[in-house]
Amino acid sequence: MTKRCWVRIHALLLFCSLSWAASPENFDTIITNAHIIDGTGSPWYSGDVGIRGGKIAAIGKLTDAARARTIDAHDRVVAPGFIDMLGQSELTILVDPRVPSKIYQGITTEVTGEGASAAPLNDAIIKSDRGGYEHYHITPDWRTLGEYFARLEKQGIGINLASYVGATQVRRMVLGDENKQPSPEQLEQMKQLVGAAMRDGAAGVSTSLEYAPAPYAKTEELIALAGEAAKFGGIYATHMRNESDAVLPAIDEALRIGREAHIPVEVWHIKVAGKENWGRMPEVVAKINTARASGADITADTYAYTAWFNSLSAFIPQWAHDGGDAKLIERLKDPASRARIRKDMLTPSQEWDNEWLEIPGPESVLIGVVQNPDLLPLQGKRLSDVAKIWNKDPMDALFG
């Protein structure tokens, strides 16, 4: 595939150069003195970029070409738009279709749908997630991925958008938020939902195995869903089950899913979290490279940040999420369950990704967004600050 793309792109550039030589038309804009990186994998090269009608019309030496405007790049890099391999703009793109936070970074394509996805939807999921929709002032008037894409096409969008169908999403459609295993008939329903989404244009199936109800899914369930996406040429993309103490077994699971489902694997935001794991990244990279050398079709991506953005409920152990947010709140109000949650959060374990033990302390938790208007004064404060304001232990402040 890489070689074919290389040939096509260079043929396009050659065609553009020839068409300019034969055409008397002016350019709208010429970008001069650029370090051009054309996306083929070749090193950068010097040149000018001619734009006409909003499209690249020529690349080469265009010093004498007529143009309405010149942009001197001053030896800066000029490149195609970047691809965000894991964005989460599926709802915010409905709020501001221009997606300026992407465009201003040079991102022109986003792939979204991390375990959860914009669709499929049913009334139960919409009711459960009502707070998020209300926060963005969005009415979810679609039920399938095809209907969601149709809404995007109708309104127009400022970037290219692709989406996976989330394994969490199809699990919620059939099983809800409960910690239980599907019957053969229910698993078949889930596979059919994946197949329908693939026919609607999904890029593959995705998992986010750290966050309930996704952890309740066994590997065999994920293999079945990934195998359905493979029939349509899809990809299996994953936020793995563990990104800290048990990161290597989590990679093994991803490799098994790819192998048994006969599907390429993309590991999202590869990392080793927690101070105790600092320095282990070479192990992770070596494991993936060894798998690739043996023939596995697996790749990974990362981000350049030392922080993450997450819901505060992600600190809570997975068992406490069984049944959804309403059940979680009940457990937090129950003294015995609350004590068990606290104990689990303070106990190292490879059974779940304990983010509470991965951070230096409550001063490292910044409240970025609140949905309850009564809590707006806390937005922008740290959890340690909230604990002082409420005169509570930081963990009790987290529990609310």
Brief summary of the model shown:
With 400 residues, this protein is α/β, with parallel strands linked by helices. It has 15 helices and 13 strands. It starts with a helix and ends with a helix.
In DSSP terms (H or I, runs of 4 or more residues), the helix count works out at 15
Counting helices, strands and paired strands, the structural category is alpha/beta
Low-confidence stretches: 1-24
CATH class of the largest domain: Alpha Beta
Q: State the helicity in percent bands.
A: 25-40%
- Summarize model confidence as the mean pLDDT: 91
Q: From the 3D coordinates, which CATH architecture of the largest domain would you assign?
A: Alpha-Beta Barrel
Describe this structure in words.
The chain is α/β, with parallel strands linked by helices and 400 residues long. The chain has three domains: 2-78, Roll (Urease, subunit C, domain 1); 82-300, Metal-dependent hydrolases (TIM Barrel), CATH 3.20.20.140; 312-399, no CATH class. Helix content is 38%, strand content 16%. The protein contains 15 helices and 13 strands. The protein has helices at residues 2-22, 92-95, 100-103, 123-128, 130-136, 145-155, 167-175, 184-200, 219-230, 247-261, 281-293, 325-333, 335-345, 383-390, 394-399, and strands at residues 27-36, 45-52, 55-60, 67-72, 77-78, 82-84, 107-112, 160-163, 165-166, 204-208, 235-239, 265-267, 298-300. Helix 9 packs across helix 10. It is globular. The N and C termini lie far apart (52 Å).
